[in-house]
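Lab notebook, bench 4. The sequencing result for the construct came back, and we need a structural model before the next group meeting so we can plan mutations. Quick request posted to the team channel:

Model the 3D structure of this chain.
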Amino acid sequence: MAIELEERFEGLPLTELGDGLVLVQAKTHRSRRRGLSRLDALAPAHGLHIPQTPSVHTFGMRFALDLIWLDGQGQMVRVDRDVPARRMRWCPRARSVVETNAGQADAFLAAGVGRAP
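Done. Here's the predicted structure in token form:
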């Protein structure tokens, strides 16, 4: 699993949030398009931030996600918990989303995700 994650996130900017949590920034077109689809797992301490999107899908996902929706200033506007595979989610007020393993949203929120700088 670690090798698969390293390859998937190789070259992407990382933000260390504290408490061992890491937020990967999906800044490239390819990383935004691939997201987390077809990964067997995501390390509990990792999340993926996808900028410039008010919607995501979970087609091709092999595990459930928590979605933290952020506005243009990085403020949390909504959290969708335990989103299973083969679903569409959108948040009209959002300008980006953080994808984490189901059950991990609170840890990322406590570490500062969703609090505008």
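The CA atoms of residues 42 and 101 lie 7 Å apart.
Will bring this to the meeting.
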